[in-house]
Amino acid sequence: MPRIVVFTDLDGTLLDHETYSWAPAQPALDLAKANDIPVVLASSKTAAEIAEIRTSIGFEHVPAIVENGAGILPAFAAAGDDHSAHDRIIATLNDLPADLRGGFEGFTDWGADGVARETGLPREQAIKAHARQFSEPGLWRGPADREAEFIDALMARGVHARRGGRYLTLSFGATKADRVSEIINDYAPCRSIALGDAPNDVEMLETADFGVIISNAHAKPLPPLPSEATGKIIRTTQDGPTGWNQAVTQFVSQYSPVHKNKEA
Fold first, then answer.
1. pLDDT averaged over the chain?
2. What is the tens place of the pLDDT at every residue in 3-12?
3. CA pair distance 51, 67, nearest whole angstrom
4. What superfamily does domain 84-171 belong to in CATH?
5. Phi/psi of residue 20, each to 5°?
6. What is the pTM (predicted TM-score) of this model?
7. What are the strands, taking DSSP E only, across 168-253?
8. 86 — alpha (psi -120 to 50), left (phi > 0) or beta?
9. DSSP reduced 3-state for 29
10. Domain boundaries, the chain
């Protein structure tokens, strides 16, 4: 039987929306480690942020998807120092008409102290969140009826805007789903499961063999997805890491031959 590979969003999924804790998911993380199941983190967070989380949960030997798929952090690697892609995004953003540019506030506009204020992260963590290499998250704070115009103007210049659980993130278009496909090929043959809670997770959920929409009481629920009708995608009733723990434990129990052998 093929091995299992788990792909997971972070904020609102593996991490609690308010506390950023993964503690309720620890039993399933331990189960994955015991059964040699890779847990691939896939988030809008930077490589600097994800490298620390990946080490803390014990999966530094597994690649991670950073900045909404704009980059990959290889196994055991630290964050790099090439910020050229991010510099091009900021240059494109600043080239917009002033009335459109003024409606968007990004991490670069805020600086590390502003990121700490907006996110509630400690300043040390905010510095890592501010260290963008491939994308620029932020908030549209202009008139609501002009947000689509802002997004279209960026698209015309080659920059994509994708809605996550908290922020509108600007990048050159690579997605979590693109990176999931690459990593699945590296682990093939495998059976994959993806977990997420936000619009920017939908393609990832559809790409994996199975998808789980994690309940998030702090965000508008995702609309029904076509694959829910076939059971390929399911929803949890519990929020964040508690729902994550339940879904991953159930999936491993059902599909991991190693786990079944341990129970025998």
1. 93
2. 899 999 999 9
3. 12
4. Putative mannosyl-3-phosphoglycerate phosphatase; domain 2 (3.30.980.20)
5. 65, 20
6. 0.85
7. 168-171, 190-196, 210-215, 233-239
8. alpha
9. helix
10. 3-78+175-263, 84-171
